[in-house]
Tyr recombinase domain-containing protein (Streptomyces fuscichromogenes), 178 residues
Amino acid sequence: MVKPWTVAEVQRFISGMERDRLYAPLLLSLMGLRPAEVVGLRWADLDLKLATVEMTRIRTMNGNSEVVEKDAKTAAGERVLPLPAWVLDALKQFRARQACERLAAGEGYTDSGYVVVNELGIPRNTRHLREHAYGLMSELKMRRVRLYDARHSCMTYRFCEKSEVDDLTTNPLTCDFP
């Protein structure tokens, strides 16, 4: 089993990718979402006013080329999660960025409704998200963990060596808890 990142490693990754285009989707991965859940998210699954994300569908790969969309495997996979304030802010900024990209691309933009798309609106898949994350890890000279395993760092990170955390609005760079 791969050892999850430490709190310091999570902080370093978040700080190092802050200006990256896929900052918000990668934060969702660190929040505990599986890569297939992140790339399966549509903007309609996010309530930016109530700060929630509804998980109902996934986009996974069959082999290395065919994208398969399906419902979550179990009832437990279908869930509504709260969005920490800093992740919510990142998602709002990402949505605004996509609106600018849509304007710049004009008719060349594909309006798919997915959150994780390229600059022309074309949905990305788990392989794209994984390779992007690995590239960032390499640029930051960080220990490489599978994106699927990076989500397990969520617990290491959320607790920040404390026994209990009730408030999900923690500042990710300082681990200052209210």
The first helix runs from residue 7 to 16. The chain is about 40% helix and 10% strand. The chain has one domain: 7-159. The two ends are 33 Å apart (CA to CA).
